[in-house]
Amino acid sequence: MNVRYGFVIDLDRCTGCGACMVACAAENNVPPAAPRATPRTGLTPMLVRKVSNGMEGAARREAFFPIACMHCGNETPCVAVCPQQAVEVDKATGIVVQMPQRCLGCRYCMTACPYHARYFNWWDPAWPAGMEKSLNPGVAVRMRGVVEKCNMCPARLHSAKEKAAAAGKKEIDPADYIPACAKACPTGAITFGNLADKNDSVFTAAHSSSAFRLLARLGTEPKVYYKSQEPWVRALAERDSDHATEAQHG
Amino acid sequence: MKFTRRDLLISTAGAAAGLVLSPVPWKLLSDASIWTQNFPWIPQPAHGPVGTKYSTCTLCEGGCGIRVRMAGKCPVGVVGVSAHPLTKGALCPLAFAAHQLNWHPRRLREVRHDGRAASWSEALAAFRKASSEGPIGIVDGRPGRAASSVFEAFTQKQQGSYQAVLSAESQALAPYADWSGVPVASLGYDMENARTVVSFGAPLLDGWGIPGRFTHLWADRAAGASDPQLRLIQIEPALSRTAARAWQWVPIRGGSETQLAAGLARVLLEERLVKSAGPMPHLTLDDAAAQTGLSAGGIRDLARTMAENRPVVAIAADGNPAIAALNDLLGAVAAPGGIVRIKEDTTPHVPDAASSPLRAMLLDSTVPWEFAAQADAEVFRFAAWDGGGNTAGWLLPAPGFLEELTDVPTPPTSARETYSVAMNLAAPATEVQSAAQFLLNVDATLPAVDKVIHARCEGIFRARQGTVYGEQTLALSKIDSAQHLEEQLRKGAVWMGDPPRDGRFRCELKEWPTGVGVSPAASWATAWALPVLPALATKLYQESTLRELPVGRQA
Fold first, then answer.
1. Is-contact B456 B420, C-beta < 8 A?
2. Going by C-beta distance under 8 Å and a sequence separation of 6 or more, which residues neighbour residue A42?
3. Residue B20 pLDDT more than 90?
4. pLDDT for residue A69 is more than 90
5. Which of A225, B308, B404, B532 qualifies as a cystine partner to A8, CB 3.0-4.6 A?
6. What's the pLDDT at B293?
7. Same domain membership, residue B406 and residue B485
8. pLDDT, averaged across chain B
């Protein structure tokens, strides 16, 4: 079966609680902030940005944009610029995979990414003494000096594949592979599935009239779709992040 | 044979070519790559067989169902349980990293007395001496647990005092308890049947009550709809997370909730929008408008919206009696979609008062760090994490997250009675004692926590009503013994009771209350009684601008 994993994020359901950010970090052994880390130098493979309609007083409206790697399906910018072939698009799943073992830390990919969804490990990963015992045993800790981003929780995909293989199946059960952010979302705003499967709910959602993609004009064919009934929220999708309200880039 | 310069060049070039064509450099590169990921200072995850346990989160009173991933005896991940009847898989953001809390740098690892290291035996001797010299006051941050029974039993025997610190959600229900005689623990909000929810500053979408319960309701019935099934109206000075997602945000002046409630009541009574003939507030509509910063027409429109979209329930962020009176006027008390009675228990808890000044106070680890104890009493403060600034009295290390066997009674705001048990899944990294265990060491005749839990399971089993949500969803009548029920609960199941046969109660309100609330509006971490946050909370406030660090907390 043709598989193209992707997200559909309903912005009207997002309350900006941040559960997706914490769950992502816990699942993928992303370390807590180093003392000097800032929103610009931190590690947030899933980042929820607060945006507003720019009005003040009772007319002001706010919404929240969960932003991760868009897993671009066409002319993937980070893949094109990486001198180490440390990023590649997995042909079987459509996931844009970052391989820290190959990364030399040049950060071309960070410059190339139009969504600012890539982060650099500026410091050695560090947890308070003993806390390493609470890390996810299925995920290797990345070292200082490499770039990282959302890989759609590869440990969960591997686990689902192992389970399917043990059961003698070639394909995984969709219920066995849900990335941490989608699983953690308390309102069901983040949904995950196979965008190439017409029977999958994310296919329907991605093709609904209120669905849109960020910076669609660039033609990178992101596999992260957003939904909103609010015209002012949809209008933000084509604005460059430098002008996108008061949200700070992480 | 003479080795010439030409031979040297040829052999060097040959060796270089051979090396490139051989797998050696690639293998070395690969090994170096792996080696650099395993520097001694790179943290290594825990080793051991990976398994899953079900339990109940004990970080706050919400009682969320959790699935804990274990590597050996170490919890390595926490997620929600979608089959949980109240939370339906939702957790607050902090719970996802709660398993890291036990390793927080501020974890208390030794007994301290007046800021110096001491021992458990010294603490025990000091407490025994204090209890022989005068009454002991025990403060409990989460009343209704098995440990609370131990505390009450101790204070009754010792003629001391037992005091419960109520959460903001419980405080909001206190006026109904005062007016009706039904205990706070027997009251809840039936939001599932409400058509309009009017929040006076309560962070309904940001951790209020049972995280996940209202957010699920809102997401299913209101999110993104212009004419939703559930109307959420948020009355709050600032555009909070809840206000940003509400169907209507009503920005009022800070601290004017009482005046707005009075203005709404006046409109409801004057325009006969309600059936009841409750007491008329003294405040005029124009005065209410002036004090809240809204227009009189705006208050009138809001009152009409509430009256036209019933069932409606108003929810206060604190114990503001004017908002409770507004609910009474709207007919939202003891009615579907409003304030409901969840059990027929009619015995309100009356705090035991000590006959003389307290000689010492024992503060349970559930008591917020900010709690101010009686100044002249010797303080025995149990805590898993040091909130700083406490150099007087005894500081006693308590069990951390998932390190203690405890039970979780009905969370405040729940519309149904529930009961679950949280097992001690993780081994404490240091010598810890819970306050209940400490008291048992003082007086061995007190009931032990596990015996109280056992007795409670027998009580639930004898009542033969309700449903158990665990590996399977089973009506209690299908469970064959109290032991079987207890086993299920110890494995992470939750029992949910049926609605009471007689849920009637009345609030006797003779005049419109003029008092104001008793606590400030809740913030995202108000329910977080711990002085520390999980390390990964830095994602929310340091590595992004999503939230601000709560006052007095440290990640």
1. no
2. A33, A119, A250, B538, B539, B542, B543, B544
3. no
4. yes
5. A225
6. 96
7. yes
8. 91
pLDDT of residue B71: 92
DSSP bridge partners of A87? A98
Contact residues, chain B, for A126 at CB < 8 Å: 43
Mean pLDDT of B168-185: 92
Predicted ipTM beyond 0.85 = yes
With CA atoms as reference, report the closest residue to B224 among A105, A209, A93, A243. Answer: A209
* DSSP structure string for A192-234: EEETT-TTSHHHHHHTSTTEE-TTGGG----SEEEE-S-HHHH
Amino acid at A203: F
Q: Does the distance separating the beta carbons of B100 and A127 come in below 8 Å?
A: yes
Residues of chain A neighbouring B544 (CB-CB closer than 8 A)? 18, 21, 39, 42, 44, 47-49, 248, 250
Q: Which two tokens stand for residue B206?
A: 């940001």
What's the CATH code of the domain at B386?
3.40.50.740
Residue in B with minimal Cα distance to A55: B239
Residue B176: CA count within 13 A, CB half-sphere: 35
| B235 shares its domain with B193 | yes
Indicate whether A179 belongs to any domain. yes
Task: Show Cβ contacts of residue A128 under 8 Å, excluding neighbours closer than 6 positions.
Answer: B103, B104, B105, B535
pLDDT tens, position by position, B42-96: 777 777 888 999 999 999 999 999 999 999 889 999 999 999 999 999 999 999 9
The answer to whether the pTM exceeds 0.95 is: no
Q: Does residue B373 share a domain with residue B254?
A: no
DSSP code of residue B241: H
Same domain, B160 and B182: no
Per-residue pLDDT averaged across A192-199, rounded?
96
pLDDT tens digits, residue range A151-169? 999 999 999 999 999 999 9
Q: Do B42 and A32 touch (CB under 8 A)?
A: no
Answer for the pair B492, B53: CB distance below 8 angstroms, yes or no. Answer: yes
CATH value at residue A32: 3.30.70.20
Decide if B446 contacts B452 (C-beta within 8 A). no
Distances (CA, A) of B423 to A137, B211, B433, B525: 23, 21, 15, 25
* Residue contacts between A and B (CB atoms, under 8 Å): 219
CA-based R_g, chain B, Å: 29
Inter-chain CB proximity B546 and A138 less than 8 Å: no
Quote the number of domains for chain B.
Answer: 2
Determine, for residues A48 and B546 on separate chains, whether the beta-carbon distance falls below 8 Å: yes
C-beta separation of B387 from B466 below 8 A: no
Residue B45, pLDDT score = 76
- Beta-strand relationship, A224-227 and B494-496: unpaired
Q: Which of B106-110, B405-409, B518-522 shows the lowest per-residue confidence on average (mean pLDDT)? A: B518-522
Residue B339 shares a structural domain with residue B219: yes
CATH code, domain carrying B298: 3.40.228.10
Digit-coded pLDDT (tens) for A2-50: 899 999 999 999 999 999 999 999 999 999 999 999 999 999 999 999 9
What is d(CA B421, CA B407) in angstroms, rounded to the nearest whole number?
4
Q: Which range marks the domain in which residue B421 is found? A: 111-165+358-496
The answer to whether residue B37 scores a pLDDT higher than 70 is no
Higher pLDDT, B39 or B92: B92
Mean pLDDT, residues B324-329 taken together:
95
- Pairwise CB contact (< 8 Å): B45 & A29: yes
Do B283 and B236 fall into the same domain? Answer: yes
Answer yes or no: are the C-beta atoms of B151 and B435 closer than 8 Å.
Answer: yes
**CB distance B244–A61 less than 8 Å?**
yes
